[in-house]
Amino acid sequence: MRQLLLVCALAAALCGPAAAQSPDVDALAATVDAKVQAWRRDIHQHPELGNRETRTAKLVADHLTALGFEDVRTGIATTGVTAVLRGGKPGPRIALRADMDALPVTERSGLPFESKVTTQFNGQTIGVMHACGHDAHTGILMGVAEALSSMKADLPGEILFIFQPAEEGPPDGEKGGADEMLAQGVFDRFKPEAVFGLHVWSTLNAGQVGYRSGPMMAASDRFKIVIKGRQTHGSRPWSGVDPIVAAADVIGTAQTIVSRRLNISRQPAVVSFGAIHGGIRFNIIPDEVELIGTIRTFDEDMRQQIFADLTNVAQSVAKAHGASAVSQVPDIVGTPVTSNNPALAARAAESLATALGAKNVVEMDLIMAAEDFSHFANQVPGFFFMVGATPKDQDASKAPSNHSPEFFLDEEALRVGTRAMLQVALDYQQAK
Ligand SMILES: [Zn+2]
Ligand SMILES: [Zn+2]
């Protein structure tokens, strides 16, 4: 933007009278870089699982309160924090969102601020690690809050800061995450006209950012199917109903849902079985077999079609075997598609190019992972982008992925993420 302003000064006719005075984002970000790094390292060393982010939430809330933000609220959806920065000039209302939770993963990074925290998870002692980089997201957004606060008098509009818990999903039996924050009225109290978020990402190199217009990250749904037969001796199959053979046929026929029934010229989709449980002994045909798996889609109609088709396959194929099926497709309604509003994405991509140079802005392939930012972006136009985390001298396609015990964040990502988010937010606020 600095270069653009210089051109404007030399040839005002090219830019026209409406060109907004934009602050120097690089200089603005530089005032918080050291703090962002310190926050990120502190949070990294003290990771907390979903709905347990009490220390992290207090750090965030104390910071926003010290900055003089309005309406600082805590305890939303268990540990979520929101606050409003009201600029000194009229302008749009937007929301910026970060997530705060860590994962049950034992860290093997060897960093001086490596997590030594352990917890009980599903009856096992396991480490807790910011293996998805949400420590970086929280640190970056705290820095963005401070940087924007420092120019509050000149800032147009109002910005809602959202620090959400449990992006990776709440503990069993609990509610949590973005949808629970919405259920507790976050967008009722402050309705933004756009929402922005970012994620540090292993398949991009530090210095790069990536995005995609339209659908970008998949909807993720779980399913459970129980095939019910009738137990009998393995030597006398005609005396019972064999659920193992029926389950095998259900799995086979389910492969035709994506390959034969879905219009995959619209979007790709995946149906995967992840576990089969049934039987205890070589010569006993069991009563039932349980199948569980995951469904990934990028289109709501295709998502609903898979739910219906998989239910139909399970019940019809089981019936053909004289068995029956109890289908829960999905058994827990999962995360919807994360989709970038095309008009917003076009504007935000220009901001990313301004902040980082066009060569560092990458258009990404579809990502089969899911992200619960989608709940916010289903309410108002949203833009979500990826910030490269893998050191520049490494092949990012081979780097340990997010969620790996070896996931590594090059802290250049903090500088890039801070500048990118600042530029996206400021350009949006100053465009009107
Ligand atoms: Zn994750
Ligand atoms: Zn994540």
Could you characterize the architecture of this molecule?
It is a single chain. This protein has 432 residues and is α+β, with helices and mostly antiparallel strands. It has 2 domains: 16-216 and 338-430, Zn peptidases (Aminopeptidase); 219-335, Alpha-Beta Plaits, CATH 3.30.70.360. The protein contains 13 helices and 18 strands. The chain has helices spanning 2-10, 12-15, 25-30, 33-45, 54-66, 134-149, 178-183, 186-189, 243-261, 300-320, 342-356, 373-377, 412-430, and strands at residues 70-76, 80-86, 89-99, 118-121, 124-127, 156-164, 194-205, 209-211, 214-217, 219-228, 232-233, 269-278, 284-285, 288-297, 324-335, 338-340, 361-363, 382-390. The strands form 5 sheets. Strands 1-2-6-3-7-18-8-17 form an 8-stranded mixed beta sheet. A hairpin with a 3-residue loop joins strand 1 and strand 2 (80-86). Helix 6 packs across helix 13. The longest helix is centred in the C-terminal third of the chain and has 21 residues, at 300-320. Bound molecules: zinc ion (ZN) (2 copies). Residues 132, 134, 167, 199 line the site of one zinc ion.
